[in-house]
């Protein structure tokens, strides 16, 4: 097997804002694995290591050297470096291997045509711009996700009222990205949100504030989901202990951040033991990573909740792919081909 990697800068179509930061672009890494004898990587599998700078536990000076060492070890038959704590590298390897084993057709985990219900995501912007986004998203999607914690309370209240006017039956999911640092602050906002019939709120307080999170989960009038709380928790026993202690209603699975696909399976098992639901969410991956998450989700048995997958439309230079939207579902179009970019590859 041969391995190589390349860097790719994704440019947002807008100023992407969360309660943590604002972004104009995002760098990602592609990993290709080719079977023995395929020197030109014509049947290679593609994976994406979508390092999330400033949030991922793996973000640091050793990241790129570890990716380089991983490819070198594969190419020279050396022992592989330990990437247990490198979630995005784990996802990239798992995706590229699965894609390679399916013939390099960008169909890792399942070759079935995708048809996955997803939520409509409303990004934080100015109040007026957010209202304009609602006009499109709230009319199109039955499940709406909106990021909160950046605007003033009265502006957020008006936004939620507007969603209800546009789509009275909408299922509204909130994502706070750890915006509230005290119990009083968190509960003040949560109780205000409750007036608008909220389905759930993701990560209302910063990660690792276990006592605070436990109290918010206990007191909240609607369900709380753990998101960033899962980052950096890699051991199976640690996963079980965390969910047993906090008892969330839901967990949000981002393979890029929570241990790749193998780690996500462990989280699903741990969630089942405490009766917590789950859904997958993309983490600003390109279409390569989005396709992998969608196909992995589709491969899992049983009924699933509406997923938090992106649409691939947030970047001006995303990888052209068969991924598309049909109604409220992310689909793969059989009549559209992938168009992979020409990249400067490193093959150590």
Concise synopsis of the structure shown:
This protein has nine helices and 13 strands.
Provide an overview of this structure.
The chain has helices spanning 63-76, 87-101, 127-140, 153-166, 183-193, 210-219, 236-246, 260-274, 287-299; strands at residues 2-17, 22-34, 45-49, 115-117, 120-122, 143-147, 171-175, 198-202, 224-226, 250-253, 277-280, 323-326, 329-332. It has 348 residues and is an alpha/beta fold. It has two domains: 2-101, Enolase-like, N-terminal domain (Enolase-like, domain 1, 2-Layer Sandwich), CATH 3.30.390; 115-332, TIM Barrel (Alpha-Beta Barrel), CATH 3.20.20. The chain has a seven-stranded parallel sheet with strand order 5-6-7-8-9-10-11, with helices on one face. Strands 1-2-3 form a three-stranded antiparallel sheet. Strands 4-13-12 form a three-stranded antiparallel sheet. α5 links the parallel β7 (171-175) and β8 (198-202). α2 packs across α8, α3 packs parallel to α4 and α7 (236-246) packs parallel to α8 (260-274). It starts with a strand and ends in a 16-residue tail after the last strand. The relative contact order is 0.15.
Task: Sum up the structure in keywords.
21% strand, TIM Barrel, 348 residues, Enolase-like, domain 1, alpha/beta, 9 helices
Which helices and strands occur, and which strands form pairs?
Layout: E1 2-17, E2 22-34, E3 45-49, H1 63-76, H2 87-101, E4 115-117, E5 120-122, H3 127-140, E6 143-147, H4 153-166, E7 171-175, H5 183-193, E8 198-202, H6 210-219, E9 224-226, H7 236-246, E10 250-253, H8 260-274, E11 277-280, H9 287-299, E12 323-326, E13 329-332
Parallel strand pairs: 5-6, 6-7, 7-8, 8-9, 9-10, 10-11
Antiparallel strand pairs: 1-2, 2-3, 4-13, 12-13
Helix pairs in contact: 2-8, 3-4, 7-8
């Amino acid at each position: 097997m041969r391995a190589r990697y390349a860097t790719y800068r994704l440019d947002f179509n807008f100023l992407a804002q969360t309660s943590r930061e604002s972004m104009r672009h995002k760098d990602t890494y592609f990993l290709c694995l080719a079977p023995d004898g395929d020197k030109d990587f014509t049947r290679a599998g593609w994976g994406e290591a979508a390092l999330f700078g400033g949030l991922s536990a793996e973000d640091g000076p050793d990241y790129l050297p570890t990716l380089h060492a991983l490819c070198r070890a594969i190419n020279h038959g050396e022992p592989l470096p330990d990437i247990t704590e490198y979630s995005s590298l784990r996802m990239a390897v798992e995706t590229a291997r699965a894609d390679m084993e399916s013939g390099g057709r960008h169909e890792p985990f399942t070759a079935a045509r995708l048809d996955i219900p997803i939520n409509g995501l409303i990004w934080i912007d100015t109040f007026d711009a957010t209202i304009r986004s609602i006009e499109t998203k709230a009319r199109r999607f039955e499940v709406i996700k909106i990021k909160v914690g950046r605007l003033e309370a009265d502006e957020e209240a008006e936004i939620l009222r507007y969603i209800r006017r546009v789509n009275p039956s909408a299922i509204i999911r909130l994502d706070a990205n750890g915006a509230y640092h005290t119990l009083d602050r968190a509960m003040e906002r949560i109780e205000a949100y409750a007036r608008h019939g909220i389905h759930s709120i993701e990560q209302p307080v910063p990660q690792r504030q276990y006592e605070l999170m436990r109290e918010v989960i206990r007191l909240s009038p609607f369900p709380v989901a753990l998101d960033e709380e899962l980052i950096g928790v890699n051991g199976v026993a640690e996963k079980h202990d965390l969910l047993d202690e906090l008892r969330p209603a839901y967990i949000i699975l981002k393979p890029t951040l929570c241990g790749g696909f193998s780690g996500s399976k462990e989280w699903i098992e741990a969630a089942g033991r405490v009766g917590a639901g789950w859904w997958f969410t993309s983490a600003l991956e390109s279409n390569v990573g989005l396709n992998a998450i969608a196909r992995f989700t589709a491969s899992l048995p049983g009924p699933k909740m509406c997923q938090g997958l992106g649409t691939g439309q947030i970047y001006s230079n995303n990888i052209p792919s068969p991924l598309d939207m049909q109604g409220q579902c992310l689909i793969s179009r059989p009549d559209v081909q992938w168009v992979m970019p020409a990249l400067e590859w490193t093959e150590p």
